[in-house]
Write a structure and sequence with these properties.
The chain is of the alpha/beta class. The chain has ten helices and eleven strands. It comes from Saccharibacter floricola DSM 15669.
């Protein structure tokens, strides 16, 4: 854990202001509360968030809030139990996730609770209006994500992508939408609100509208490898840098890697006639979303 905090501190010194804990499933980390407390104490961190499947939130939501976590995002692809089971590979029950969301809402995180939903054609697109209404009823923003070829194991096919335009049309079943300005440079979601309300939804269109050129995100795996893209083939071993060079060396390596990054996977995919690249990529459950 101490090595993670050292790397995070170096990143913050270089200008990073937002830190998100993802997975796999971050709520399974045995030192999660201590890690959150240490990251929250770093001078310069303005947004400390966590993405989870939500199952363990009934036990951990309040302790995480007290430790300094500001925001929680819960992955929820369907409210229907059968569709949820299909989207989650037969693991878990939607009732457990919904209980976790309720616990997170009750914990009163300073920056609230958000839902992320991946939309796959022929599976859960009919759930989109229901999920938007569910989030709005609880003052939660919901983000709908085009189905992506993250990693190499999900059998991704281009025809299974429900496009941003199609998601927009599904969301308008709940009422007319109006565009909201971006909150910060590099925000990946296009934001909307239902006209005449404060109910917000968002669409992340990594497939049909790639945003590689404005991406400001990097990822650190649990074993200390640094990735400059969700679709990267390999990462830089920072754990060895920490152990043999210390914080100053970590800062130098991070600066160099970021200045030299040239990741354009989503843009390149768009030029492959809608097919995914055949190259190997790190799995999403290894570096998070």
């Amino acid at each position: 854990m101490a090595e993670m905090v050292t790397i995070a501190r170096s990143a913050v010194r270089l200008g990073v202001r937002k830190i998100r804990l993802t997975g796999g499933e971050p709520l399974l980390h045995p030192q999660l509360l201590e890690l959150v407390e240490a990251l929250a104490a770093l001078e310069g961190v303005e947004d400390l968030a966590l993405t989870t499947n939500g199952v363990l939130l009934p036990q951990l939501a309040k302790p995480l809030q007290r430790a300094g976590l500001r925001r929680v995002t819960v992955s929820l692809d369907a409210l229907d139990s059968v569709i949820f089971s299909h989207m989650s590979g037969g693991r878990g029950h939607v009732e457990h996730v919904l209980s976790g969301i309720e616990a997170a809402c009750q914990a009163q995180f300073p920056d609230g609770v958000k839902i992320n939903s991946v939309v796959q054609r022929g599976v859960n697109e009919r759930e989109v209006p229901k999920l938007a209404a569910y989030g709005a009823a609880r003052q939660m923003n919901t983000r709908f994500i085009e189905y992506m070829d993250v990693g190499t194991r999900n059998g991704w096919q281009r025809h299974e992508v429900v496009t941003a335009d199609e998601i927009y049309a599904l969301l308008e079943q709940n009422g007319p939408l109006e565009r909201i300005d971006l909150r910060y440079e590099g925000e990946v979601a296009t934001r909307y609100r239902y006209r005449g309300t404060d109910r917000e939804v968002g669409i992340i269109a990594s497939v049909t509208m790639p945003f590689c050129g404005t991406c400001t995100r990097a990822r650190l795996s649990s074993d200390g490898r640094f990735y400059t893209c969700l679709f990267a083939q390999e990462g830089k071993d920072l754990r060895s840098v920490v152990r043999h060079g210390g914080p100053d060396a970590v800062e130098e390596v991070l600066h160099t890697l970021w200045q030299r990054r040239s990741d354009r996977y989503s843009e390149k995919r768009a030029g492959l006639d809608g097919q995914k690249s055949a190259s190997q990529r790190v799995e999403m459950n290894y570096i998070g979303g």
